[in-house]
What we know:
Elements: H1 3-14, H2 35-49, H3 63-74
Amino acid sequence: xxxxxxxxxxxxxxxxxxxxxxxxxxxxxxxxxxxxxxxxxxxxxxxxxxxxxxxxxxxxxxxxxxxxxxxxxxxxxxxx
Length: 80
């Protein structure tokens, strides 16, 4: 699954974010993930992608930045 689709699915399916609210320019904080949910989100991302999100600033990363971070970490030609 592409990182973009996986992040969307994770936010909607696991964290009950309204699908219409998951916009590339919105931050995790904009999507109303509290501190516990942020930690859980980071752990889920690490489990699924083997990539650790930066501990500092993850709450203020946009959906688009998270996807780009995951794509960059997966190496050239992977992800999507």
